[in-house]
Amino acid sequence: MSSLITQDHREQFKEEGYFILENAIPDKHMSILDNACDHLIKIIDDEFDAQGITRNHITHKGVRYHIAKRYEEYPPLKEYIFSDLMEEVCKSTIGETAYLFYDQYVVKCAEKGISFSWHQDSGYLGFPHVPYVTTWACVDDMSLENGTAFVMPFSTIGIKSLVEHILDPTTGDKVGYFGKEEGVPVIAKAGSLAVFSSLSFHRSGANTTNKMRRAYVTQYAPAVICRPGETEPMHLAVPFLKDGQKV
């Protein structure tokens, strides 16, 4: 397999905390990501209806979905999660050993999808840990109008470490940056991939279009992450790579 990730990408990740790969995801895997999203949204809606609720944490029914750690409910997703592309991403960012730490669909519904505040993914853990890598797959074309993600380069904000985040009780978001810097928007076609450190600040806008905006996030850590004083993994700890080989 020819390499999609260049030395320039690796250097940008090290110095700025992110890079973007255009048209990186194979068509077969895009079909899986598309179908899985519909399947999982229906599961969530059915669960909400059964409980008589419209919000759970940062998921708001019919507005914004964060569907986390449900990949096993649509088994074909494993083909993408543990693909050659993800292997290349991990080796280029966190090294030769990798565990699946987290996965989630991030969906903004048509004309309703609300924005998401500046945060570090590590800020949702709230304790010191080994940094991990986030892959943000564009399931749809991403634009300013449909609420794409913005990534803050390390050099712009001058922060490469975990900072304290404050909970917004209205949205359930944790917020770690309140400044005026706008960051770099991910303007990319479906099938593209944004890759950034768990210490990189990022946010997303509202979806003002008449179509749903979908992204699929997978996160990989170079070691099992546990809460301080605990031995059980905080989220997932699915072995993926060991000494450069798929497990």
Task: Describe what is shown at a glance.
The protein is an alpha+beta fold and 247 residues long.
Structure overview:
There is one protein chain. This protein is α+β, with helices and mostly antiparallel strands. It has a single domain, classed as q2cbj1_9rhob like domain (Jelly Rolls), CATH 2.60.120.620. Helices cover 22% and strands 27% of the residues. The chain is built from five helices and 16 strands. It has helices at residues 7-16, 27-51, 77-81, 84-93, 154-157; strands at residues 18-21, 55-56, 59-60, 64-68, 98-108, 116-119, 133-138, 149-151, 166-167, 174-175, 184-185, 193-197, 202-204, 213-221, 238-242, 245-246. The strands form four sheets. Strands 1, 4, 5, 7, 12, 14, 15 and 16 form an eight-stranded antiparallel sheet that branches. It is globular and about 45 Å long. It starts with 6 loop residues before the first helix and ends with a strand.
Characteristic key phrases:
single chain, 247 residues, alpha+beta, Jelly Rolls, 8-stranded antiparallel β-sheet, 4-stranded antiparallel β-sheet, 5 helices
Write the layout of secondary structure elements.
Layout: H1 7-16, E1 18-21, H2 27-51, E2 55-56, E3 59-60, E4 64-68, H3 77-81, H4 84-93, E5 98-108, E6 116-119, E7 133-138, E8 149-151, H5 154-157, E9 166-167, E10 174-175, E11 184-185, E12 193-197, E13 202-204, E14 213-221, E15 238-242, E16 245-246
Which residues sit in consecutive blocks of at least 5 with pLDDT less than 50? none
SS class: alpha+beta
What is the global morphology? globular
SSE succession: HEHEEEHHEEEEHEEEEEEEE
End-to-end Cα distance: 19 Å
Architecture per CATH nomenclature, i.e. the level-2 architecture: Sandwich
Helix content: 10-25%
* CATH fold descriptor: Jelly Rolls
Q: Give the count of helical stretches.
A: 5
The residue-averaged pLDDT reads 94
Number of strands: 16
DSSP strand (E) fraction? 25-35%
- The figure for the number of domains is 1
CATH class: Mainly Beta
Task: Output the CATH homologous superfamily.
Answer: q2cbj1_9rhob like domain
Q: Characterize the largest beta sheet: strand count, sense, and whether it forms a barrel.
A: 8 strands, antiparallel
Spatial extent as radius of gyration: 17 Å
